[in-house]
């Protein structure tokens, strides 16, 4: 048995030799906390089987901020936000007029992601790639087959599913208005179809029911347990599809999450403080700000609207926001390297200050009402990636994966290089390392 992340040598792997017969399926269960695996009441027989027969990490550390798009991007690039440049679930757009910044999700991958991805490298090496509901991937030219978060009724995969009665064109047109559980069902249908029909070398597959439920009802609630049990059944469908196609001898399944979860009882509205001190003015339809706070859940990014006024305003913002209820710390740019965040001088996404919340508190974007509001139930993420509650899961099983390997904490920056190693490609730009300790000494052809 190998213990640790880099202690075992894998002599049969020939680095740089592309394995065109291999298949890797990366399944992301959004918002599935590592601590949930410790609860024997959790109904996840498939994931437990994969962990027992393959490899599992005690936990997987996400990057900052611990939200969905930055961490899914870390999973496929092997670098943190200081390099891939994604801090929100989309692109932060700021205006010269000082209006409140907005986050725009439907931007092309080339605009959002500023680092090579494992699917880029795989595609350029002649391998086939696929994605179902992956994020920050719109318009990617290195994806062979896709069923996106917002499916296109005219898309080739969608057309085959319409033709066999799995879904109707009208349902796909109204996809965003349906339930999260139903969306996950259709995304799983699409993933199974792509695996069976196309057998891609790499499939990226993302499910959202767990995150949606944990936000609404809180992690480890009755609803959360039910959601995680449902997700386990979707993982089983993927495994069953690979077995039915007779490709398990060359297929590897990796199950991960992007971040953990915390229960919350209070929301903080720091833009209210900026309004009270005159930094935000106007009525609710025409607000203008000298500075704005943009929430990422358990952390928040502070932006000065006019770069010429930073020297004046940053000390003032620090005084306004420090030592307030629910705010644990105000981070300045000299701490951003430690946090893995880009500087404002290097990126238009980089903040001027960063706020971290205490447990039970999370940030919100409203600029009107009370600074602190209460909620009856719910949960969120976005807290610093050192928070034990933010740690994610990692399980690997199938071809080339050693049985009974138990790793300690790993980094999600290790996932892309590990996938690359299995496929025989090289992620030269990744800051993580291939988890050689989980790979069999002899990777069967």
Report on this model:
The chain is of the alpha/beta class and 445 residues long. It contains 14 helices and 22 strands. Strands 7-6-8-1-9-20-2-21 form an 8-stranded mixed β-sheet, with helices on both faces. Strands 10, 17, 18 and 19 form a 4-stranded mixed β-sheet that branches. Strand 4 (91-93) and strand 5 form a beta hairpin. Helix 8 runs parallel beside helix 10 (222-244) and helix 9 (209-217) runs antiparallel to helix 10. Mean pLDDT is 94; it is low at 1-15.
**Outline, from the CA principal axes?**
globular
Number of domains: 2
Distance between the termini: 22 Å
Helix content: 25-40%
- CATH fold-level name of the largest domain: Alkaline Phosphatase, subunit A
Largest sheet: 8 strands, mixed
Task: Flag low-confidence runs.
Answer: 1-15
Q: How would you name the CATH homologous superfamily of the largest domain? A: Alkaline Phosphatase, subunit A
CATH architecture of the largest domain: 3-Layer(aba) Sandwich
Rg result: 22 Å
Secondary structure: elements and pairs:
Layout (H helix, E strand, L loop, with lengths): L22 E7 L15 H9 L1 E3 L2 E2 L6 H10 L3 H4 L6 E3 L8 E3 L4 H4 L5 H7 L4 E4 L12 E3 L8 H8 L5 H5 L6 H19 L3 E6 L1 H9 L4 H23 L6 E6 L5 E7 L1 H7 L3 E2 L6 E2 L1 E5 L3 E6 L5 H12 L5 E5 L4 H4 L13 E5 L2 E4 L8 E3 L4 E2 L13 E5 L6 E3 L2 E2 L3 H9 L22
Parallel strand pairs: 1-8, 1-9, 2-21, 3-22, 6-7, 6-8, 10-17
Antiparallel strand pairs: 2-20, 4-5, 9-20, 10-18, 10-19, 11-12, 13-14, 14-16, 15-16
């Amino acid at each position: 048995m190998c213990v640790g992340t880099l202690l075992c040598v894998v002599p049969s792997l020939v680095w740089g030799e592309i394995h065109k017969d291999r298949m890797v399926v990366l399944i992301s269960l959004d918002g599935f906390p590592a601590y949930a695996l410790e609860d024997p009441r959790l109904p996840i027989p498939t994931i437990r089987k994969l962990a027992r027969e393959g490899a599992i990490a005690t936990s997987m550390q996400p990057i900052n901020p611990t939200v969905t798009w930055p961490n899914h991007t870390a999973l496929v690039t092997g670098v943190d936000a200081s390099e891939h440049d994604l801090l929100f679930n989309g692109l932060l757009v700021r205006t010269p007029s000082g209006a409140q910044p907005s986050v725009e999700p439907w931007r092309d991958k080339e605009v959002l992601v500023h680092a090579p991805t494992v699917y880029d490298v795989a595609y350029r090496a002649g391998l086939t790639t696929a994605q179902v509901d992956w994020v920050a991937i719109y318009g990617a030219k290195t994806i062979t087959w896709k069923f996106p978060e917002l499916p296109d009724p005219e898309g080739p995969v969608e057309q085959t599913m319409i033709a066999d009665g799995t879904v109707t064109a009208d349902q796909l047109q109204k996809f965003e208005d349906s339930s999260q559980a139903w969306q996950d069902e259709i995304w799983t249908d699409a993933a199974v179809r792509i695996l069976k029909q196309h057998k891609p070398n790499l499939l990226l597959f993302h499910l959202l029911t767990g995150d949606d439920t944990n936000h609404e009802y809180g992690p480890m609630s009755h609803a959360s347990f039910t959601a995680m049990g449902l997700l386990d059944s979707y993982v089983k469908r993927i495994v069953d599809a690979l077995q039915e196609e007779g490709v398990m001898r060359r297929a590897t399944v990796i199950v991960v999450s992007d971040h953990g979860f915390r229960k919350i009882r209070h929301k903080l509205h720091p833009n209210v403080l900026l309004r009270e001190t005159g930094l935000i003015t106007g009525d609710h339809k025409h607000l203008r700000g000298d500075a704005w706070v943009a929430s990422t859940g358990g952390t928040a990014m502070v932006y000065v609207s006019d770069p010429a006024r930073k020297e004046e305003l940053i000390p003032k913002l620090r005084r306004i926001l420090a030592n307030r209820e629910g705010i644990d710390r105000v981070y300045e740019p000299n701490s951003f390297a430690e946090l893995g965040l880009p500087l404002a001088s290097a990126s238009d996404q980089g903040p001027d200050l960063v706020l971290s919340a205490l447990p039970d508190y999370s940030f919100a974007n409203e600029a009107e009402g009370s600074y602190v509001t209460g909620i009856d139930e719910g949960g969120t993420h976005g807290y610093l990636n050192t928070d034990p509650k933010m740690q994610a899961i990692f399980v690997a099983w199938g071809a080339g994966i050693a049985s009974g390997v138990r790793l300690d904490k790993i980094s999600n920056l290790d996932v892309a290089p590990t996938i690359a190693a299995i496929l025989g490609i090289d992620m030269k730009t990744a800051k993580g390392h291939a988890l050689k300790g989980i790979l069999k000494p002899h990777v069967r052809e």
